[in-house]
Amino acid sequence: MEANNKLILLLLISVLPHIIFSSATSASGKEYDTKAYVDKWCRTTLYQNLCVRSLSRYVRSHAMQNPRDLARFALKASLYRAKDTKAFLLKELTNLEKVRPQYYALVHDCLTQIRDSVNQLSLAIAELDRVNRRGGKSQVDLDWHINNLQTWTSTALTDAETCVSQFPGRRMSKLKATIKGKVKNVEETTSNALAFIEHYAAARYRARRP
Fold first, then answer.
1. 3-state DSSP call for residue 75?
2. What does the pLDDT look like over 93-111, one tens digit per residue?
3. Which of 15, 167, 175, 183 is 20 to 30 A distant from 67 in Cα terms?
4. H or E stretch including 8?
C-alpha cells in the first residue's frame, strides 16, 4: 500500500509542472486575447489611451469579449472616477466656506453636477444589466432600454462638461487645476462609455434582423 502511495506521489510530481504550465499558458492566452479586443475597440473612441488604461484593471479579472462587456466595464470605470471626484469635492467643500469663500460656490455647483453624474451612471449600469436579463423581447422594449442607456450616460457626460466649463483657460490655482483635471477625467471616460453603448446598441439591433 505504501509503495502504491509513493508511486502515485511520484506520478503527481512529474505531471504537476506540465499541468501548471498548461494552465498558465491558457490563462495568458485568454488575457492576451482580451487585451487585444479591448485595444481594438478603444481605437474607436475619442480618448484611446485613457480607454485602455481605464479598462486594463478589468482585463485580468473579467473576459471582455462582446460589446455589452465593453459598455458595462466602461460605465463602471467612469462611475469609479465620478465617485472619486465626488468624494474629493466633498472633502474640499468642508474647508472652503471659511478658508477660501470665493471658491465655495464654484465647487458647490461642480459637486452638484458630479453627484448627478454618479446617479446617472449608476442608473445606466442597472439598465444595461436589466436589458441583458430581459433580452429586449420586442423591438419597442429594446428601443426603450437603449434610449434609457443613451439618455442617462449622455446626461452624466453633460454634467461633467458643465463643471469643466467653469474652469476656463490654463492659468489657475492648484485647487482649481486639480478639480478640473479630475472632472475632465470623468468627462472623457464617460465619453468613451457612451461610444461603447452606441456599439452595443448597433450590435443588438443587428442581432434582431431576420
1. helix
2. 887 777 677 788 889 999 9
3. 183
4. helix 2-42
Separation CA 110–CA 121 (nearest Å): 16
Pick from 176, 197, 180: nearest CA to 73: 197
Residue 173 phi/psi, 5-degree rounding, is: -65, 165
Handedness of CA 26, 32, 34, 40 (dihedral sign): negative
- Give the pLDDT confidence of 107-153 residue by residue, as tens digits: 999 999 999 999 999 999 999 998 877 665 667 778 888 999 999 99
Angle, CA of 156, 157 and 161, to the nearest 5°: 120
- Kindly give, in sequence order, each residue whose CB lies less than 8 Å from that of residue 126, ignoring residues fewer than 6 positions away: none
**41, burial (CB in 10 Å: exposed 0-12, middle 13-18, buried 19+):** buried
Single-letter residue type at 108: H
CB-based contact 180:169 (threshold 8 Å): no
Collapsing DSSP to helix, strand or coil, 45 comes out as coil
pTM of the model: 0.80
CA angle 137, 122, 132 (to 5 degrees): 20
